[in-house]
## 1
Amino acid sequence: MQTVTPEFIAGMPKAELHLHIEGTLEPDLMFYLAERNGVSLPFETVEDVRKAYHFSNLQDFLDIYYQGARVLLTEDDFYDLTLEYLQRAYEQNVWHTEIFFDPQTHTERGVAFETVLNGITAALKQADEDWGITSRLIMCFLRHLDEQAAFDTLAQAMPHRDKIYGVGLDSSEVGHPPSKFERVFAKAREAGFVPVAHAGEEGPAEYIWEALDRLHVARLDHGNRAVDDPALVERLAQDQIALTMCPLSNLKLCVVKDLKDHPLRRLMQKGVRVTVNSDDPAYFGGYMNENYLAIARALELTRGEVLTLAGNAFAASFVSESRRKELFDGLARYVASFA
Ligand code: ADE
Ligand code: ZN
């Protein structure tokens, strides 16, 4: 059996479906933007920043992540941030990407919704023109904030339905179940936004049931804790609800103690459509290729299984059917090149 090498992963066409644009803020860019905008940072050097990136749970990370986002103020900042991520995606053979953004992280600091949105979408357009990378944008509600704040954010998004494809739910999970946002999601779906939600990262399997039955999500972000509930696994497999899993994130945030314990393969073997993604790559030590390689090595995945993961992401992408065909054709050509 041929082993999965870094070259095999690097050359494979990929789609990324779980990526927070604020989580792509590399320390170098953080310092550069802090200087450009006159924002003070609680770190002296890039080395200090990297040393601070040790987390024992999700909240530890979020505290630092929201701090970092303070350097993002202008449309140019959001453009630069997004284009830097897309450049890396291009270098890693990512053909399609679906990007989360958290408007409340910025509007709470007085940055206009349109400043965030216009900066990001200008970079997405540029990457499509220059590199042929297609994308979708998903606006997340911060679940630690209240329902009214989410309704206000949804109202701000309404004039921009042409640019924002879906709505999601992120931030501190435990104590903030999906049901808290049932009414906001109903309104968002009615307006045509496709719903997704983080569930079962730290929260229990019950939160995944809620995301399915009360938010009616088209896809689930993380979903690790589904393994605790065989009936839930069966439901995910039956309805082909994809999970956007994030191996290095799970390791860094202590969702798993060791990548060898990661549920990705067990779920895949039960027929669940699992995918590999990077979540917040600047904070967790790896972009797409590093995530694929780490999970392939830890779980001793075969080349066939890795190709299945890449295909799962194409199948679960929110793309047109013609684009989906291009993605699958690219993967088929890649497989044929090894025959
Ligand atoms: N926001 C950014 N990354 C996140 C994660 N892994 N879980 C919840 N919220 C997030
Ligand atoms: Zn996430």
## 2
Amino acid sequence: MNLLLFSAADLCAPGEIRVADQRLQHLHSVHRAAVGDSVRVGEIGGLMGEGRITALTDRQATITFQLDCNPPPKLPVTLLVALPRPKMLRRILRGAAEFGVEHLVLFNSYRVEKSFWQTPVLNDATLRSYLLQGLEQSRDTVLPAVTLERRFKPFVEDRLPGLLQGRRGLLAHPTPGAGAAPSTADTPLLLAIGPEGGFIPYEVDMLQSAGLETVSLGPRILRVENAVTALLGRLLAPAH
Ligand code: SAH
């Protein structure tokens, strides 16, 4: 946790929060925090700044803070990922938030196991907690939007064209003849990643007809989470 995120529910006075949940555990076990220590804090959806621990027990921590700094700019990326197995989903949720993706769309595809849609990871509160972990890691306060698309065809036909407005659409597909994956996000991008078993030809055709260009990271077939990380990692801007 490189940033302690809070919401209005944590405020006990103006400029003061009290935490008693896993954030408190983290202050104790990882930061070995003590009264007087400073911690980076951020308001979910708002500004970030410096906090100071004014009281600390096993039960709760009180932190006064001042917010004066904007969160980093988002990566201008809409990320489409065929719903992966729950373990990988957790990593992808954290990763998408960590890399600053604006919008994550989890979609169905022929090779997505139906049972994956039943996972508790997709419950609103659980999903949000994984996204927050990503934001805490990378020091950001703005949650990515997350959309679930349980049916491939209506998604691609009815909603993908809207998502593509003003964006370059790319389909990550390890196939000979595909172009190189981009190394900047000068233009806003929409990036589609397939399921563990890959897209079926019908899906590739539909996505290409919708306007997505096929891009590749080379002949190595990467695990979905590594493909996501490799594709997003190329887009990070070094200067800040
Ligand atoms: N057997 C499948 C591999 C799927 S890998 C196939 O041949 O298509 C899962 C997903 O990760 C792929 O659908 C693709 O979106 C992405 N991916 C993995 N390795 C990649 C690479 N080298 N280049 C581009 N995308 C890749």
